Amino acid sequence: MDNTQITVTSPLLPDLDELDAYLRDIWSRKWITNNGHYHKELEAALCEYLKVPYVSLFTNGTLPLITALQALRITGEVITTPFSFVATTHSLWWNGIKPVFVDIDPSNCGINPDCIEAAITPRTTAIMPVHCYGKPCDTKRIQDIADKYGLRVIYDAAHAFGVEVDGEGILNAGDMSTLSFHATKVYNTIEGGALIMHDARTKQRIDYLKNFGFAGETTVVAPGINGKMDEVRSAVGLINLRHVDEAIEARHRVAIAYREGLRDVPGITYFEDMPGVRHNYSYFPIFVDPEQYGMTRDELYEKLKSRNIYGRRYFYPLISEFSTYRGLESATRENLPVAHRIAEQVICLPMHHQLSGEDVERILDAVHN
Ligand SMILES: *Cc1c(COP(=O)(O)O)cnc(C)c1O
Questions:
Q1: What is the pLDDT of residues 301-346, one digit of tens each?
Q2: Which stretches of 279-335 are DSSP H helices?
Q3: Are 90 and 230 in a shared domain?
Q4: Sign of torsion, CA 268 271 273 276?
Q5: DSSP three-state, residue 353
Q6: What is d(CA 299, CA 126) in angstroms, rounded to the nearest whole number?
Q7: Same domain flag for 27 and 90
Q8: Which residue, by CA, sits nearest to atom 5 of ligand 1?
Q9: Ligand 1 pocket, residue 92 CB under 6 Å
């Protein structure tokens, strides 16, 4: 049997001839960074694609989190999820904010709205949820709680590129949302990211903040950072944007094949599509119940590896288990039972636009015990 390596992900890469034309144009303009021609074009194109009013590009997906917290002057404590990539919580730490972890909802692996109110203290200023795997959080309930207590909401939407609920872009929820355009994501600019906001004033402020706080040649209005995206990666973004829908369709076909193939495997569960949601199929997590499946998640992970198939244990360990955060009152296992159970049962199967039917067959064959 074919034993070539199946990677967990594979980057969407621009066609070299298309890229060549852009590079020649950038070289002739000799304007290679600092809000250049293609930077502006990509911001406008993303507003349209994502159905949002304002986008500010960044050089990665972590700086928009850090910058959003700065722009909204968030301090004190922020309620967040332990079930995410470490950058979510690191962005709080970099702002001197205390993360307060609450448990997750097993139906979407996002923050459980039922757990938020009990975690609010007089020092709480904001909520930072994550649309985990691109599954939309219950944005309405989160907003109701935020409004009731006067809290801000910043969504880490790194997984949610192109996700829509009832025809509306998910990135319109909350005060701001952030995206990552890292090579491993559904849509990439090699490295890159963006911050999504609702009004022109906030967009202006963010644009200052990502450029050292400069508002003109000699005026610095805030202690900003350098978060700017360059022209070359903006061009990569423009090209990839023309192919991202095909890539999402290819991912969708893989998801359909996985669901079909896993339907009758005892002890393996996975998410179905949610009604009214345009999914992006950024990940395909499955949950292994060792009693019923007859093997633990880690045993399955190793078995896949022995067949040269690479899954990912996203998200394991939980962020609350890392040494920086383990000492927090909210990081205890008792506070986060669902997150702990899922972290021990989850494995994300390979998911990308170039997986072939044979690849999927091989993966399913390995999962079938
Ligand atoms: C990828 C990711 C980030 C960080 O994005 P970078 O572009 O790698 O800095 C933040 N949060 C989540 C949930 C992510 O998956």
A1: 999 999 999 999 999 999 999 999 999 999 999 999 999 999 999 9
A2: 290-293, 297-306
A3: yes
A4: positive
A5: coil
A6: 39
A7: yes
A8: 61
A9: no
